[in-house]
Q: What sequence folds into this?
């Protein structure tokens, strides 16, 4: 891997402004999912180092919180500009450790940086209230204050954006942080810390603890009473575990968990637009996003035409290592991910689904899997209930609007949903009936820093991005002034 600035590739973690090895010198390798080669290695830290990172964040808190929002924004703005100035290096690093096509990685760097810019500005607008009081001699004022030390645990599918989406609002609000990046993609997190340091972020404000022992570090982050909030993005199972662990010290939790996104195509949809939306929503990042279409529900009258057009588009997808040319689908993150996709597909085929295209490991070998479409999928198959997190599009058939809505809501998840329709009354009815935090209407890509991202039901708690995103990092304090 060739970086213009080799200083972005780190082999040490970042605690209290110091680049450090693990106490016992232990480390673990980061590999390239496209070919299994070693990209680098990072410290395998445990509870003791995590405690020190929390203590550093705690020590840095009073001075950081005391700065004006404008002073914090100036540093965040520099961080934003440095991320953009290093877009190519960050994209190459991301594609190398995570596998996504370089074009997608470049896009994620811009998307990730946007949260820093956005929240640097929003931090200046954390307004309070003056409330007409309940007594003539009293005045009521509401102020919003930084919540304190925040812990963040982040996933590998968006190695930069899932960090900046938390760090942007947390730091802008005056919080300090300890971040544990995913073990598959710690290098992007460390590169972000290099740039934060260069931007002038004071020591201790942002700490990155790398580990291959997530339960141990997560245990400390959730039990330590100094941490006032946990912000987690990852699987529902781990989110539930962390929420339970946070109960002991009554931490606030923000959870962005799994999804089971329905992508509904009604008879009156613009077919080409629906196919383009499905391609973007399903195959981006090789299907490894929590808002990827997981179930394509297609109305009877348009089902065959949609399936045929989707198959044509899928046949054009170029699969290969993320860094090699005009690739549109890279490898899956690791061997377990490929095994899971294989298992889900075998279950669907066993129960009667038909493979329209793809359906097996890719000839490139390793972690590559063919872009796949299966038709005739039913509620009895595992793909109907489980998050696929791979490039497999299962097509379900429905007949009426009521049936589509019922099928779409028949899941414990509630993150993103999509539908394509042109009848305006139907658009309103369906948008209101879907039990999801995000609804894409005639649109397959819904992520942007300006809109609130988050789920209902078992998909999570809280919203990231938009003006609502900063609420998660402040506490409301009510001042009652008497004797006036
Ligand atoms: P995924 O299926 O996307 O890998 P995970 O929920 O396993 O989802 O991982 C998301 C993040 O949660 C990663 O940073 C991972 O290391 C972390 N993680 C996994 N298990 C635990 C745990 N028991 N405690 C704390 N963090 C965990």
A:
């Amino acid at each position: 891997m060739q970086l213009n600035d080799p200083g972005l590739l780190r082999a040490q973690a970042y605690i209290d402004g110091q680049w450090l090895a693990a106490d016992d010198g232990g480390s673990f390798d980061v590999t390239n999912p496209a070919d299994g080669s070693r990209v680098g290695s990072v410290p395998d830290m445990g509870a003791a180092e995590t405690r020190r990172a929390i203590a550093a964040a705690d020590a840095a808190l009073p001075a950081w919180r005391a700065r004006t929002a404008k002073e914090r924004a100036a540093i965040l703005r520099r961080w934003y500009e440095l991320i953009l100035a290093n877009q190519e290096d960050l994209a190459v690093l991301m594609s190398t450790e995570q596998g996504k096509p370089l074009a997608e990685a470049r896009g994620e760097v811009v998307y990730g940086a946007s949260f820093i810019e956005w929240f640097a500005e929003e931090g200046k607008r954390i307004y309070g209230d003056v409330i007409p009081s309940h007594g003539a001699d009293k005045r009521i004022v509401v102020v919003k204050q930084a919540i304190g030390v925040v812990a963040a645990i982040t996933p590998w599918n968006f190695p930069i954006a899932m960090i900046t989406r938390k760090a942007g609002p947390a730091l802008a609000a005056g919080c300090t942080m300890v971040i544990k990046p995913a073990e598959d993609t710690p290098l992007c997190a460390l590169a972000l810390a290099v740039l934060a340091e260069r931007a002038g972020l004071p020591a201790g404000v942002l700490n990155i603890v790398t580990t291959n022992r997530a339960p141990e570090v997560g245990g400390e982050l959730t039990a330590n009473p100094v941490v006032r909030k946990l912000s987690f993005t990852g699987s529902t199972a781990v989110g539930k575990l962390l929420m339970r662990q946070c109960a002991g010290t009554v931490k606030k939790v923000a959870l962005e968990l799994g999804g089971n996104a329905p992508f509904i195509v009604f008879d009156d949809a613009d077919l080409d637009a629906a196919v383009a939306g499905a391609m973007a929503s399903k195959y981006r990042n090789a299907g490894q996003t929590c808002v990827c279409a997981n179930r394509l529900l297609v109305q009877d009258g348009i089902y065959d035409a949609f399936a045929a057009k989707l198959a044509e588009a899928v046949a054009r997808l170029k699969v290969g290592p993320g860094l090699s040319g005009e690739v549109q689908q890279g490898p899956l993150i690791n061997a377990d991910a490929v095994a899971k996709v294989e298992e889900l597909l075998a279950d669907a085929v066993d129960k009667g689904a038909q493979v329209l295209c793809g359906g097996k490991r890719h000839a490139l070998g390793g972690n590559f899997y063919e872009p796949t479409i299966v038709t005739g999928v039913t509620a009895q198959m595992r793909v109907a209930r489980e998050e696929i997190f791979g490039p497999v599009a299962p097509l379900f058939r429905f007949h009426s609007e009521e049936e589509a809505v019922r099928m779409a809501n028949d899941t414990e998840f509630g993150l993103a949903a999509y539908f394509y329709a042109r009848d305006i009354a139907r658009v309103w009815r369906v948008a209101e009936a879907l039990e999801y935090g995000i609804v894409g209407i005639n649109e397959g890509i819904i992520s942007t820093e300006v809109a609130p991202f988050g789920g209902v039901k078992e998909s999570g708690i809280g919203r990231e991005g938009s003006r609502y995103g900063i609420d998660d990092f402040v506490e409301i304090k009510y001042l009652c002034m008497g004797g006036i």
